[in-house]
Design brief:
Helix content is 29%, strand content 18%. It is of the alpha+beta class. It has a domain at 6-64. It has a 4-stranded antiparallel sheet.
């Protein structure tokens, strides 16, 4: 059986007891027995993490309380939305720039490679410049 989050409970000297029930009538005999020993025993409704005198008062308080914004009622978000301060894609700085082509060094490497392949020879390791150490 799933746990109940709204139930009647007996409060004895300001402390909750393990006596819990869905209906008030189930706890009334136990409450009368406890009142013989301790006059401060009382029956309270527990809902939403608080104790209430009755379920009606708990419902009224819930109606008066402003509701939190849910995803269904909130503003629509597009693909560019990001949580937090700046709404920028953190991966954008690694994206290739459009329209600028490539660097002059890259173009030179490609033209040199194309020229050597056009000549019909493969590039050998000796064609490479020495590495900087």
């Amino acid at each position: 059986m799933p746990p109940r989050y709204a139930y009647w409970t007996i409060i004895l000297d300001g402390t909750a007891t393990s006596f819990r029930a869905a209906t008030r009538e189930e706890l009334v005999p136990t409450l009368h027995q406890l009142r013989r020993k301790a006059a401060k025993a009382e029956l309270m409704w527990f809902a939403r993490g608080r104790l209430w005198p009755s379920p009606i008062e708990a419902r009224e308080a819930a109606r008066r309380r402003p509701r939190a914004r849910t995803a269904a009622t909130g503003p629509k978000r597009d693909r560019e939305w990001r949580p937090g301060g700046a709404h920028k894609d953190p991966r954008a700085r690694f994206a290739k720039k459009k329209g600028s082509g490539s660097s002059p060094a890259a173009r030179a490497r490609r033209s040199k490679k194309a020229a050597s392949q056009a000549a019909g020879r493969k590039r050998s390791p000796s064609d490479r410049p020495p590495r900087k150490r």
